[in-house]
Specification:
This protein is mainly α. The protein has four helices and two strands.
């Protein structure tokens, strides 16, 4: 947070990525509770906002937030597992992360 000069982090736990198989996904409330344990910090808010507002795609969530919070400057943070879907270099970064995970 300090390095990126962020005031807060909104950790949005997805109801399920529509581009992935969600068959083995734990219940949303379990994943929200697990994220809260990991993010035990007063300026990190864990939420299932996408379920509340009825969005499943990042584009729709960002559009909603920009309309509802027009004076707020958002910085998008996401897991490296989704990086490969955004840009060819993302595939390289995701592959390198997987290689590093296997070594540990």
């Amino acid at each position: 947070m300090k390095r990126l000069q962020l005031d807060r982090i909104w950790w949005l736990v997805s109801p399920g990525n529509p581009l992935k198989d969600n068959g083995n996904l734990h219940a949303l409330d379990e994943r929200v509770n697990a994220a809260r344990k990991i993010a035990h910090h007063p300026r990190i808010d864990v939420s299932s906002l996408e379920t509340v507002i009825g969005t499943r795609y990042t584009y729709d969530t960002i559009s909603y937030l920009r309309r509802r919070c027009s004076g707020v400057h958002f910085v998008w943070l996401m897991g490296a597992d989704n990086l490969a879907q955004f840009h060819p270099l993302g595939k390289l970064a995701a592959d390198r992360r997987s290689d590093a995970d296997r070594r540990h």
